[in-house]
Design brief:
globular
Length: 389
């Protein structure tokens, strides 16, 4: 009898276990189905204001994409980025990781003094693409002796003292080693030491990957000296804080931590007269700055109203009738207003929005001097460097 009772109890236990397992599977399937249905009925977003970036769109289902696994990977990214309440979940996850004592989350270090610093690692980059970009730039510089390249180091590299204790941050040193081997020193404007000399000052935003206008000023001063003319002293600029609640792209990755930034505009006190043509007349602005952007979701767009394809700047009272061509990423947006003080004409070009090689562009905008200005991390990833020809 005892053995029979034990057998019956074992059978009942196994049955209960199967029921619990089936209930769990059912709950999971129900949750997945509910999430899938929610994603399908929620309007698809193309841009995330919280994360300041474009979102993945629904991938096309084809036999080729399925067999290669591309469709599955794109679907995973799409579901992740279009998930309803994603921003709130990112915030919750980050807060939980911080409670557990983690120093970083989503590729961001929680640094000292309210700084959020990007965690760049060598495996984050396609080094074949990096080498290709360096070769393309070197070939362009060889073709145009009047051109120079300025690569801006990452915030984590310059402000390494702000990193949390024992942070294993791989900087952009490998990139600079490769660039220095291919690009002649006389065609580079090195700003790393100039920035490090002022690392205790407010030269990078706490919650964004960009340098501040002060950081751009120090780079401008180094570039001006390299070009053989005197940079305007800081005292000649009226410095105006225009936004004190700026939370940038680095903050958008974690949605918590950091201390809000202040954006400053530097405007010459002698008020030189400029005329502007944005995108060959497509956009109407009469300044380097679009103050309406300060009320939007990306106050950094106050510089030029955001990234523009082509901005043609003319200074009416310029001493020298020379033209500067600046080929840049977003780091050039707060640099160009400084450089424009020294030229009769300054052409600012963002290759991401121009479907022409630079050689054809220069037939329309011939230049006496050329500056290629990119943040090192953005340069390494940029596939539009191929237009430097």
């Amino acid at each position: 009898m005892g053995n029979k009772n034990k057998k019956e109890e074992k059978t009942k236990g196994q049955a209960a276990g199967r029921i619990r397992c089936l209930c769990f599977v059912g709950i999971v399937l129900l949750a997945l189905s509910g999430c899938s249905l929610l994603i399908h009925v929620t309007p698809e977003k193309t841009y995330s204001a919280e994360e300041r970036r474009m979102l993945a769109q629904r991938p096309k289902l084809t036999k080729k994409s399925v067999l290669r696994g591309k469709f599955q990977l794109q679907s995973e990214t799409y579901l992740s980025e279009q998930f309803p309440g994603r921003a709130q979940l990112v915030t919750l996850r980050t807060k939980w990781l911080r409670l557990l004592g983690e120093r970083d989350a989503s590729g961001v270090y929680f640094g000292k003094d309210g700084y959020l610093l990007e965690r760049y690692q060598e495996q984050d980059f396609d080094w074949q693409q990096v080498k290709k970009n360096i070769r393309q730039t070197a070939a362009f510089l060889e073709q145009y002796p009047n051109a120079k390249a300025m690569f801006v180091p990452t915030k984590s590299s310059v402000l390494s003292g702000k990193l949390p204790m024992f942070a294993q941050a791989e900087t952009d040193s490998r990139f600079f080693e490769l660039a220095n081997k291919r690009i002649p020193q006389n065609q580079q404007v090195s700003v790393t030491e100039a920035l490090r000399a002022h690392q205790e000052e407010y030269i990078y935003y706490r919650t964004d990957h960009h340098w501040t206008t002060l950081g751009a000023y120090y780079a401008y001063a180094a570039w001006a000296e390299e070009m053989g003319f005197s940079p305007l002293p800081q005292q000649q600029f009226a410095v105006t804080p225009v936004c004190s609640t700026f939370l940038g792209t680095t903050y958008a990755k974690v949605r918590t931590g950091g201390r809000a930034d202040t954006i400053h505009l530097y405007e010459p006190k002698d008020a030189p007269r400029y005329t502007f043509e944005y995108n060959q007349g497509e956009t109407k602005l009469d300044s380097f700055y679009d103050r309406s952007k300060l009320e939007g979701d990306d106050p950094y767009s106050v510089f030029f109203g955001g990234n523009q394809a082509i901005v043609d700047i003319r200074r009416e009272d310029a001493e020298h009738q020379k033209t500067l061509l600046v080929i840049k990423d977003s780091f050039g947006n707060c640099f160009a207003p400084f450089a424009a003080n020294h030229y009769a004409r300054t052409i600012v070009v963002d290759l991401r929005y121009v479907n022409l090689p630079v050689s054809k562009l220069m037939r329309v905008y011939p230049a006496d001097d050329i500056l290629i200005l990119y943040n090192s991390a953005q340069f390494m990833d940029d596939k539009d460097i191929s237009k430097l020809k």
